[in-house]
Amino acid sequence: MIIKQAIKQANTPFELQFDPTELKNPLVFVFGNRYILEEPSIYEEVRDLFPSGHIVFGSTAGEIVKDEVQEETAVLTAIGFEKSTFLVKRKNVTEFNNEDDRLGEALMETFPQEDLKHVFVVSEGSNVNGSALIKGLEKTKAKSIGLSGGLCGDDDRFERTLASYNENPKEGEVIAIGFYGESLEVSSANYCGWATFGPERIITKSEGNVLYELDGKPALDLYKMYLGEKAKELPKSALLYPLSVQTLEDEYPIVRTVLNINETDNTMILAGDVPEGSKVQLMLSSVDDIANGAKRAGNLAMKGRQTAPELALLVSCIGRKLVMDQRTEEEIEEVREAIGDKAIVGGFYSYGEMAPFFERNSCRLHNQTMTLTLFSE
Known about the structure:
GO terms for molecular function: kinase activity. By secondary structure, the protein is α+β, with helices and mostly antiparallel strands.
């Protein structure tokens, strides 16, 4: 596996320190600030570097490269596989009338499943129900096939997110990369590092990812009561106080971020489903807890691996980044300590993370977590 990386600042070309012709038919991830991905020439610029490349774009809330967290840049990670193969497929939410489970099902059906080891997803993050998308992807996927990835971000603006495959980035795209190879080893894991506080409540009214009532009372009113003065800063302040959601079907609680609020309907829009009957508590965290959670995620991803990882794709949550602030890179350093110094690290800060719980086959949508997907040939 040959892996090369480069960084681009706004209105400047990528700063290459390698010869692009070293990589034959590479998979090229470009994770970047939404404004940079809106530059009309962005796809042409990358295509000129890698004429035979398979180029996947995704907008971010921060870019991860090596041991660093970048802002207002685009980070290119080009991967040349020596023993493995891959396929890239795409769908758009508008093709399915926003029925994201059907989109996920249709996307997975485009992959031949024989010898398929893992599917990594880079998804639109503003107008997709990540839980429904994963449910569709899981519906026809064999249990032996891994699934991970993330929802694209737009810093803390929450205006729009972009993604694409072999074209200029645009809204509504869901990209999936399927990895094949007998010698390919892929492992993924997640961990949050957030703690619950306050009373436990029951979701008494919800629809998909829209939360109406807790214990028979308007959910938004209760949430604002707990936030106090910070309620004036919604929806941004909600990133600091996610919800722990214990569903009837999941053994482990799921962390859910509040993406937006609807003052007219008095509702909260979350990044994933919040089923009726689920138990809910508020959450908070500290810098040290988040950093320790990142290390725990790294240790879980390494557990049981037969080979040292060559590539680590990290997807972490914008809420973690806001809490960490100037110390954000500490969680990347903790991951590096767990996985070793041989792996090339890339990734992004997201609006939602996709990974299975440890020693579970099925993938889940997470918020406020560090997720890792480790590759080696």
